[in-house]
Amino acid sequence: MAEATLRALAGRLLKAEIAARRARDVEAVEKAVAPLLRLDAEGAFIAVDAAGNPLAGQGLDDVLAKVQADRPELFEAGGKAAGTTSTTNPFAQGPAYSVTNQMLLWRADPERAEHLAAEAGFKIGRN
To answer: Which domain of life is it from (predicted)?
Structure first.
């Protein structure tokens, strides 16, 4: 059950990141990047080559940046620049607030999650 939930959340995160880059067709971009991504044991996206072998140090942002550079026709002008990270804070009250994104950020980058939570006026810790 936990694995299915994690996969569902990862799918939502993928669609959100694709939409943030102003994809003309989210499903088409998702089909282009899906073969290049896998979830690791902690639920983070890792980039893989055509044979399914992990690419060290590469993840979701790297794959999306490559697809955006290789296939710009899939994206509208003015979308999130390739290689940049999202500036939204899932801990801040407002439209960016998302418990799901908080959890995913915490799993992927606990230090950044702590920083963003502090910016939003919350104190979270690893213990």
So the answer is: Bacteria
Question: Which of these, 87, 57, 79, lies nearest to 71 by C-alpha position?
Answer: 79
Specify the pTM. Answer: 0.57
Q: Quickly tell me which residue has 């399914």 as its tokens.
A: 52
Q: Is the dihedral of CA 5, 62, 53, 46 positive or negative?
A: negative
38 burial type by CB count under 10 A (0-12 exposed, 13-18 middle, 19+ buried): middle
Residue 65, φ and ψ in degrees, nearest 5: -65, -40
